[in-house]
Design a protein that fits this description.
Blueprint (H helix, E strand, L loop, with lengths): L4 H6 L2 H7 L4 E4 L14 E4 L5 E3 L5 E4 L4 H8 L8 E9 L10 H23 L5 E4 L4 H9 L6 E7 L2 E2 L11 E2 L4 H4 L2 E2 H5 L7 E4 L6 E2 L2 E2 L6 H14 L2 E5 L5 H17 L5 H13 L11 H4 L2 E5 L3
Parallel strand pairs: 1-4, 5-6, 5-7, 7-11, 11-14
Antiparallel strand pairs: 2-3, 8-9, 9-10, 12-13, 14-15
Helix pairs in contact: 4-9, 9-10
């Protein structure tokens, strides 16, 4: 097997020797490396043109700074949340001028609802914890927070688009676009800092279900990743899952549904290893579709925070 140039540049031999016995790699990216899924680095080409990815050797988690890991582990944990799953998805937006395929958008929304209901019903059996359509709003988030119910959930999902600063309506902070953004505003980084969570994982699953202003489905990346993940961790979670780009709806289902199913079946397995298991299944062609072995479909889904 031979190492590839990019792999050698980012993980030279001296580093490779230091990490060879590690189980979890913690990556602290900077600049354009925020958008690079390290798990998709080709560590070697094997016989018969087979590709060997870094994720096949290590579970991987990301941090905005090395000191953050100690802070997360030293944080005093509250009591175990009584409820398993809470989701905000398929927010309603004003008509989007650049999207005339309303039928296709409706199909996408139905698929997302189906995926969420499968997670919530099949894995956790808490249908009432889904906030869909107009209920997927900033006011709903703050109502739960004011009622001290937002910290009742172990897993929290926002299946909504996200924007980076100055890309939509002069928003100066990274933000999530929930329902009625023109009247209620966006769920900004500052808003998230004001929330009280007690979650093992917050999943920011940016999708293609709607538009706001002149932007559609901006991915969280760069400073957006750093700002939003830090805000959610400050609010009370040790892990935040983000997508680096929009992926096929069905492969997104394999990742999100697969992760929550895996976590339910393996209570003591850590988050980084659980996500690695799902990605290995896709790489090996054992997912719902064989083409999901391509890293485009699995590499975008990464976790920031404590991989344990």
């Amino acid at each position: 097997m031979s190492l590839t140039p990019l792999y050698q540049t980012l993980l030279p031999e001296a580093v490779h020797q230091l990490i060879k016995d590690a189980e979890i790699l913690y990556i602290v990216p900077t600049g354009p490396l925020y958008g690079l899924p390290f798990g998709a680095l080709v560590s070697a080409y094997k016989a018969r043109r087979e590709i060997h990815y870094l994720i096949e050797d290590y579970a991987i988690s990301y941090l905005s700074s090395a000191s953050l890991l100690k802070i997360l582990r030293d944080a005093e944990r509250k009591t175990q949340p009584p409820e398993p799953f809470l989701a905000f998805a398929d927010p309603e937006y004003p008509p989007c001028e650049i999207d005339d395929e309303k039928g296709a958008e409706t199909v996408a929304q139905r698929r997302t609802k189906s995926n969420l209901k499968w997670i919530n019903g099949g894995c956790f059996n808490r249908i009432k914890a889904l906030y869909l359509g107009p209920k997927a709003s900033r006011s709903s988030v703050f109502a739960l927070n004011e009622q001290q119910q937002l910290d009742d959930y172990r897993y929290v999902m926002f299946s909504v688009p996200a924007v980076i600063p100055y890309r939509v309506n002069q928003i100066e902070q990274p933000a999530l676009i929930l329902s009625n953004p023109l009247t209620e505003g966006y769920l900004t980084m500052a808003d998230v800092f004001a929330l009280t969570l007690n979650a093992d994982l917050v999943n920011l699953s940016a999708g293609n279900s709607g538009c706001a202003g002149d932007s559609c489905s901006e991915n969280v990346r760069g400073e957006g990743i750093m700002g939003l993940t830090r805000a959610f961790m400050y609010a009370g979670t040790s892990r935040v899952a983000v997508t680096l780009w929009s992926v096929d709806l069905y492969s997104a289902k394999d990742l999100s549904v697969g992760l929550f199913t895996h976590l339910k079946a393996n209570h003591h397995q850590n988050m980084a290893h659980a996500l690695r298991e799902i990605k290995l299944k896709m790489i090996q062609g054992k997912a719902s579709r064989r083409q999901y072995a391509n890293p485009y479909h699995w590499a975008a889904f990464v976790v920031y925070g404590d991989g344990q």
